[in-house]
Amino acid sequence: MAGLGSACLLVGLLTALYAAGASLYGARSGSRAAVVSGRRAIYSMAGLMVTATIVLQSAFLRSDFSFKLVAEGSSTDTPTFYKFTAMWATQDGSLLLWALLMSLFSSAVLFATRRSLRDIAPYATAVLAGIAAFFLLLMVAWENPFTTLAVAPVEGAGLNPLLRHPAMMIHPPMLYTGYVGFAIPFAFAIGALIVRQTGADWIRATRRFALIAWTFLGAGIMLGALWSYAELGWGGYWAWDPVENASLMPWLIGTAFIHSIMVQEKRGMLKIWNVSLIVTTFVLALLGTFLVRSGILDSIHAFGASTIGAQFLTFIAIVILGSTALIVSRLDDLRSEAKLDSLMSREAFFLVNNLVLVGLCVVIFWGTFFPLISEAFTGDEASVGPPWFNRVTTPLALVLVALAAIGPMVPWRRASRSGLVRSFRLPLAVMAVTLVALLAFTNSANSPLALIMFCFVSLVLTVVSQELWRGTRARRTITGDPWPRALGQLVARNRRRYGGYLVHAGIAILFLGVAASSAFQDQQDKRLSPGESFSAGGYDITYVRPTAEVGRDTAGTGAPITFGAVLRARRGDEVTMLHPSRNFYPSQNLEAGPIGRFFEGEATSEVDVRWGLRRDLWTAVRPDIAELEPAIREANAKFSSSGNDVQAIVIAAIVEKYRNDAPPANFRAIDSPLVSWIWIGGAIMILGAMIAIWPSPEARMRRVTSIYAARLGKELSQA
Amino acid sequence: MEYIVAVIILLALVAVVVLRPLVLGVGEDDRESVSREELEAAKEAKYREIRDAQLDFEMGKLSREDHRAVDRELRAEAIEILKQLDAADGQASGA
């Protein structure tokens, strides 16, 4: 089967090169047959990548250790659920996932545009094929996921325990879908530049793909944060880690792009800006893919060092230089068709929002790559930590949230004074009341930045509510529908607008959670013996008793040994029992001994969280198993030649010893107010994006013939 | 051996799919010279703008004068697109 997989890669590479060549030939010679042939080559490539993925996944599911990738990233005792995800835990598998998604996305967009963009699409096909060819070349020449071993081992190394979390099942594919999705508008932008058709056609054709990419990337980032919170054992959801930042940067620039293309669609403005944004987004997406595996920056998320760094950097350089040269050569075609009518217009605020988003990305880029920059100039690798990131990004985040409120209240082109007064009156009043209430009834004044954020969040939520209310009322005036129907019709007829507003509300709620949990959390680290207590936030926490289990990992990660604790948390009359634990996975290091290897392998925290809308109580335990070492050493010596059954009994006895006479364990407890609203806000954001993506009834074809003005009126009244 | 056989078979399958338009020619859809879909997309985008402006006016964000000016401009652009659509239909039926 490995031969079939490798063959798919080689034929896929040849097919991609053919697609690029045929499309370019068709575009230049005017041969439709060549263009169609190029497009069909992309469809074929998708079929090949699907086949290759099935071959690899079946090898993982069958635990076929003759595949090097399977032997290194899976094992017979890896739960099936995680065997399926093991493909993208490896570099080679990630490349295949990229190529698979790339071919599927490319096929989808080329099918959707098969009867439009006749001049642009062939060049876009060539660009998409070129990108796919790069990833296929990496696999064919350097990182073949179908490499086989001369002698297959009896057992595999197993999946990295840190990746055994449900969020990890879908986090990487979501991120990659986001990264790959941005290749679509990038390719069409390049095509539009080449043929000098720099109007809004390429935007209209690819806007939905950009939105899908943005949504998936955002969801992937959220899942990564959730994984960090629930799996990594440090209690946070965002550490300003290079790999986290690498995924955030294209999302930020993608956000700017999604806003600014509306200006080009409606006003024919910001053309240079838009093509520059999409090129930057795509380059950052490539950089994100590269960083997660390169090991050039220290990261808790970087899994393994890359052997293809030079190739990646070369490709990124080609994309940057080629795109920049193309943009510069087309400056005349990219001139704006209109001028800004007023600074108090939607387009002006979009521009400000863009500048803030780009500014945010620039400071994150600077902080992320500062270790490399400082090493290049001073020879010392210095890095900036989370406090620096928090300090520089918080003011920009505040401005962004404020703009999320202001933007929807301002119309396109120009706002009238009376209209502005009418729009701003209520939200500003609610914000003022919120401020007074927070100062009077909470300790928010202790954190002025959080207080400002809370006020801006109230502003956004009031604006969105007001927009829905006023829109529904206007619709009712026209149609006389009851309120719920009028609201439904309003959203259905204006999905982009109200989907976008819901995204704004989601972002605001997300920032509510970030601000509250950052400014007012209480974290306590204690070393306790059973029966001892400590306080975190408003909770009194008692270490009731230790736990120690063999083969009873409740998280389903396949860990053979689990040490933990039972905690009782009391807050007033409320009593909660928590069971944080730590899973121990066997080491492949035979020097640790047949018994010792079960205790000296990788360990992961299985945190226990009391989730709540008002606050989370997050707990983790780090059992001290050093006192078991004499027993482990003795067992290694006595039972090295015993059978597996005997060794299992000995391991169970050592685990029992911990349960009966546990030494003090280290605990971390965090009382985080409103942290759940981060996930709720993220979910609302994704829901809003889905509403905006969903095709509206107006997109259906309508063929009517009549006098134009009457026809216009008739068609506008439909849907 | 498995690898070489797989490469040959896959190449043959891909060749059948990819070379078909070069050998048998392209279908009706692919010969169509005027892109009606692009004009339809432009029309829908323009309609959306008109509706947006109308909604902004009804919600009090745009004054009556501003809305009238914006609406007139957008409708003129929409009519231009409708004319192009009709011309495209005429070309297609005449071809």
Report on this structure.
The complex is a heterodimer of chains A (719) and B (95). By secondary structure, chain A is α+β, with helices and mostly antiparallel strands. Among the domains of chain A are: 1-164, Four Helix Bundle (Hemerythrin (Met), subunit A), CATH 1.20.120; 404-520 and 678-690 and 698-703; 522-674, no CATH class. Helix content of chain A is 63%, strand content 9%. Chain A contains 22 helices and ten strands. In chain A, strands 2, 3, 4, 5, 6 and 7 form a six-stranded antiparallel beta sheet that branches. Chain A has a four-stranded antiparallel beta sheet with strand order 1-10-9-8, covered by helices on one side. In chain A, a hairpin with a 4-residue loop joins strand 8 and strand 9 (615-622). The longest helix of chain A is centred in the middle third of the chain and has 33 residues, at 346-378. With 95 residues, chain B is an all-alpha fold. Chain B is built from four helices and no strands. Chain B is elongated. At the A-B interface, helix 1, helix 2, helix 9, helix 15 and helix 16 of A face helix 1, helix 2, helix 3 and helix 4 of B.
List the helices and strands and how they pair.
The complex is a heterodimer of chains A (719) and B (95).
Chain A: H1 2-29, H2 32-61, H3 68-73, H4 80-85, H5 91-112, H6 120-141, H7 166-181, H8 183-194, H9 201-231, H10 242-267, H11 271-294, H12 309-329, H13 346-378, H14 386-409, H15 417-441, H16 448-479, H17 483-493, H18 495-519, E1 522-528, E2 533-536, E3 539-550, E4 561-571, E5 574-578, E6 581-584, E7 603-606, E8 608-610, E9 615-622, H19 629-639, H20 644-660, E10 665-673, H21 676-693, H22 708-717
Chain B: H1 2-24, H2 28-31, H3 36-58, H4 64-94
